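Field: COMPLEX_INPUT
Field: COMPONENT_COUNT = two
Field: RESIDUE_TOTAL = 722
Field: MODE = joint
Values follow.
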Amino acid sequence: MRLKDNQKDRLAQIIQKRFKLNATKAKVVVDGFEGLLQNGDTQFIYDLNYMIFHRRNHRFTKKILNTIVETYTYLFDDTKDIEDKNKIREIFEKLFDVLFIERCKYSKQLEEKSKITQKILQHTTKRLNETLETQELMIANISHEMRTSLNAINGYLAIINDKDVLQGEDKQYLNKATHATRTLKELVSDILSVTKLNSGQLEIQKSNFWLDKMLIKCIDNIALMLQKKSKIELRTDIEFVPYRVYGDQNHIMEIIINILSNAVKYTDSGYIDLKMRTSKNSDNEVKVVFEISDTGIGMTPEQLKSIFSPYSRFKTERQGLGLGMHIAHQLAKKLNGSLSVKSKYKEGSTFTFTINIKISDDKTIDLQDRKICFYNKGHLNQTQKQRIEFLKSQGANVHVFDDEKIFINHLLTVQESGPDYVSVVSTVDGYSKFDALIYYLKTLPNFEKTIFIAENFRQHISLNYFDEIYEYFSPIDVYAVNKSQDVKKFESKVNISILAIDDTETNLDILSLFISKKYPNITLDMASGGYEGIGMFKIKHYDMVMLDLKMPGLDGFEVFKKLKELGLPLPPVYAFSADIYKSNIEKVEEYGFAGMIEKPLQPQKLYKIIERIMNEADSE
Amino acid sequence: MKQIVNRTKDIAYDYLSAFGFESDKIDATVFKGLIELESAFERLRGLADESFDFDAIDNALHTIKGILFQLGNGEDGNLVDSLRGEITASNYKEKILQLLED
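Field: COMPLEX_OUTPUT
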């Protein structure tokens, strides 16, 4: 079939219009098409294929499709002969096939491209995650190692400070170094916390605890900061919760301490209010709301928006990096709690931390028949009333006094054994008066087991004879402690000397820690081996000797034998050993040791022995 | 060994903190204790390379056990103590290396 001239012109126009070609190029295309139509010349199909392949552009392919449809419609309508019509249909079917195959190929390519892109994305994401994990792990490891080294630096600085050998500006340098190390240590701890939180490594450690005692620990933690800011007063309004709870005490404390220390940091004068309210969700869960308000610098709306973002510290001259609130917020979320804040610029802020905590199965404390005397100059507040009701409900025998004379008269006329606890809330003069009274009462046999507690004591005077002093309130479990369980500090002023012989320095360090904390007046000499110990024993009188049994060179038994042979007065010699076997104990008895002190050190047993020796020295 | 040292480090801070010691003193004591613990482990490693000396190995294990106990890591202390009863001339290298690999 041949195309007519008018048909060729029309086709050239269509091609020109669609592909923006000049007349000559359009004519070449039309000639190629005519070749296909006339004698089946496949060059046109080949060229079409090539163009589509070369362009690889779906818009171009679509343009060809539209051209073919327009051309086909025109030719088919313009042709009258049936055979020619059939020929046109056959040729155009071939052209549509080319396009269809090309579209299929194109789709396939797209699919493959998409698959490859997905693979690349997956790989990149994996690598990115691996890099992040590695970085987090690296930061965690470095922070951990840095903290260890900083602990050591801090420790050695403390040792130098304890020796008290530096003077003048050298001492100042030491203080500055100590301060800088502490700041760095806090920063490293913060970074470690953030890393752990982000990487999900933070461990939740639950235990039973009293909420009031936990808050006392929080307040203790910021006590030094508060002391430095004399124009701030911390006020507490803590609801008494008559049961223990079961939760992650340390992390709850971390959140509260963070908020409290921020309140102190950003408040120069006025108040910090610490409130705690509870409401039971069910028999075994309680909702606890901690609210901390301050009269500090407050925040602008812009600052408020980013308060929980990392590094959101607003006043650069204040200490810290601004990670604290971010950590507190993340921690609250981790504990399934919430932390929110309201603030007014230059007026102050209020932080509210809410958490649901399980009520402990162990709800009671043993207070059966405990005798407790309360003296409160003034009216009891709601919390004090709740505490007293709770103590009574646990079997305690509680007497409450609000008249000083009647209370003192009651104490002075006690006939049998005195109360187990005497708790006093008073004024400056009142505390001084009671301190003197306690000094006298302690000389009486019926007050031998009494624990004297000063509560709500925020005075600039020192109390010498109260056993326990609390700035705000005493924890409820203080009434469950028995005096024989070592609440009271040993008051003997007797100085005794102890010789400890052990080849392991750590054992001596730990021993020194325990002894010096409770008995700062005791002289503890330490020898790292048998011969050294014997040498020290020869030149100085000791009231007690502690002897490690297993040492290189002379063992403990041999040292003891040599000490006896010296012919000097022999004080009580105690075996100091981790080998608590029957054979060892028998051998210790056989050699004539005064007893055995176990490793790990059991402080109560050690203190009992020391106090016995101090009593003996005192009576001599 | 590294794991025991790390475990002890974590336990020791909590253990000594529970007695209310100042953190600076705890830091210094734990730091020195861990150095001594590591050097006791190294001494033990040296003994595994030498010919069998029961007393020396027992002394080294005793020292390690004592430090672990004193730093509050009773669990690993007991493990080391039980090892003392298992050491023989034929198994000492294997037992020591096993402990050091932990």
